[in-house]
Specification:
Layout: H1 2-28, E1 37-46, E2 55-61, E3 70-72, E4 78-85, E5 92-101, E6 107-108, H2 116-119, E7 127-131, E8 136-143, E9 146-156, H3 167-170, E10 174-179, E11 184-189, H4 192-198, E12 199-200, E13 205-211, E14 213-220, E15 234-236, E16 241-243, E17 250-255
Parallel strand pairs: 1-8, 5-9, 6-13, 9-17
Antiparallel strand pairs: 1-4, 2-3, 2-5, 5-7, 9-13, 10-11, 10-14, 12-13, 14-15, 14-16
């Protein structure tokens, strides 16, 4: 009985200590849980009914954001983005990016907020808005700024057979995009979710989305994480890739003679 009582007392003491720690964290946090408030940014996208797109997305960006909130537009074009802030009395300059995509399973390359070489071009610069004050901001009617086309990239070996037929083959892969002048505008790798959604392992093929325009693609099979010395080998996909619309899908092939 004494051991049982001691264990019970120890358990109660531990619960009290845990509760004190939690209360202390809440009290001394710079922005307490109670101060995180929801603000909605709502509007309507002027959808182009002649373009056979699968979805249209609206992305919110302003200085200081680490994760960029967004929302898919409804069939009638309406959207609302929920943004969580600590003070509803402040106004914030921001940008809205409105993008239409051909297919739901494409891995998006060259995504908002766009790298600075593209950000100077009007269609990639976003719509400037002011959020707040208050818990709701209405932005009215906004146009689709960037339409993505569908692209498939197949990677073959020197015998023209599928090269990357295992999930582990795709995990280290990185893709770089350059504009038609050769300026880098995008670099990214693939997450397990990306691979499951967008890669056909049997065919060694990936479904991609690129904005309308002319681009050059490069692939690093061994991976080159950003911010470190580039040690991997970039392989150029032959020719330029011209993306026009969802109605004109593009297929390209990279043949690897040796790893």
């Amino acid at each position: 009985m004494r051991l049982r009582d001691a264990a019970s007392l120890m358990g109660k003491a531990l619960k009290r200590l845990t509760l004190c720690i939690i209360v202390g964290m809440i009290v001394f946090m710079p922005t307490s849980i109670a101060q995180v408030l929801k603000r909605s940014i709502c509007g309507k996208v002027a959808l182009n009914t002649t373009e056979a797109v699968a979805r249209t997305e609206v992305l919110l960006y302003y200085e200081g954001l680490e994760l960029f909130p967004g929302a898919a537009a409804e069939p009638d074009g309406t959207f609302c983005i929920d943004n969580y802030v600590g003070d509803l009395s402040q106004s914030i300059p921001a940008q809205l990016y409105v993008m239409s995509f051909c297919r739901p399973d494409d891995e998006t390359l060259v995504n908002a907020p766009f790298w600075s070489p593209l950000g100077k071009i009007p269609r990639f610069s976003g719509k400037r808005i002011t959020i707040g004050p208050g818990n709701a901001t209405r932005v009215g009617l906004v146009d689709v700024q960037v339409v993505y086309g569908h692209l498939t990239l197949t990677i073959l070996n020197h015998q023209h057979r599928p090269l990357l037929t295992e999930t582990s083959d795709w995990s280290p892969l990185w893709i770089r995009v350059r504009d038609q002048h050769g300026v880098p505008v995008h670099e990214s790798g693939l997450s397990p979710v990306d691979i499951e959604r967008s890669v056909d392992l049997k065919e060694s093929r990936i479904n991609l989305a690129l904005p309308a325009g002319t681009w050059r693609l490069e692939v690093a099979l061994a991976g080159v994480p950003p911010g470190v010395q580039r040690g991997g080998k970039w392989r150029k996909v032959p020719g330029k890739v011209k993306i026009e619309s969802c109605g004109d899908p593009v297929d390209v092939t990279l043949t690897v003679s040796r790893m």
